[in-house]
Amino acid sequence: MRRFDYFRPSSLAEASTILREHGEGGLLLAGGTDVLVQVKEAGRPVRYVVSLADIEGLSGITEHASGLQIGARTRMVEVGSHPSIQARYSALSDGASLVGSVQTRHLATIGGNVCNAAPSADTSPGLAVLEATAHASGPSGERTIPIIELWTGPGRTSLEAGEVVTHFTLPAPGTRAGSHYQRHTPRKVMDIAAVGTAVYLELDASGTCTTARIALGAVAPTVIRAPRAEAALVGGPVTEETAAAAAAVAATEATPISDQRASAAFRTYLIEVMTRQSILRAAERASA
Fold first, then answer.
1. H or E segment to which residue 71 belongs
2. Distance between CA 76 and CA 6 in Å, rounded?
């Protein structure tokens, strides 16, 4: 591993100044479960590392009337086991509970998982269907970014020079709402998603779907929404037939590639199967 400079600022302003003054080639360090592996084993070039460990206010989960706030440095184990997230934001707890191993989840942070911008990230599809917003602090002050607009490509985000994501906010779900995330991996544990599917549904008293959001992971350069599949669900009951029809549409909205984890054809097949399953599971949770 090559030599690099290490900074441990005590404030967001100090972190932003370091990032701005030192320019490209820097990494933010929170849990380190992604970036340290990239540096040590994958040979990712890095000139300097900025630790967020001493900056207050970046951790914790806060509930309020309009929704939920999650600090960017909040550990995955906290996100996955939080009672309100499990009950009302299930797609997010599903994803957080799948990240790495138990040991990894005690170090990995939600901000790191999101800002690493891997299309296969397990919390990103859930955040997308829950319509999360990322909040960043930088030289120009505070900025909000719809989560789906944060990712611009593999390993790339729309964050500007000197910006640090501080927290995420999620709007309160509807009264009869449910969500679900699942992934397929070549191995059962300690692997990266070949495909991830997340679904959020709202149903009215008669069981008619009034809102549908579907997000797909690891099948495009970024996590994507499937708007035509979403539209296919709205206005009718969620049944095996309507779920299958919407899932078939979702499979046409992705642009999967072939790699060591799965072929493009197998990914397309998985999208259809898994989206149907996630639709039906989200509908069960909405009806519970």
1. strand 67-71
2. 25
Residue in the block written with tokens 């309160």: 172
What are the counts of helices (DSSP H) followed by strands (DSSP E) for the chain? 12, 14
**Whether the Cβ atoms of residue 201 and residue 211 lie closer than 8 Å to each other:** yes
- Report the alpha-carbon distance of residue 276 to residue 188 in Å, rounded: 21
For residue 96, CA distances in Å to 39, 75, 80, 130, 163 come to: 23, 9, 5, 14, 24
The structure tokens 């099948």 sit at 219
User: Which position has the token pair 């969620």?
Assistant: 238
Tokens 């005590």 correspond to 10
Pair of tokens at residue 163: 């910006």
pTM of the model: 0.95
- For the stretch 264-288, pLDDT in tens is 999 999 999 999 999 999 999 999 9
Tally of CB atoms within 10 A around 82: 20
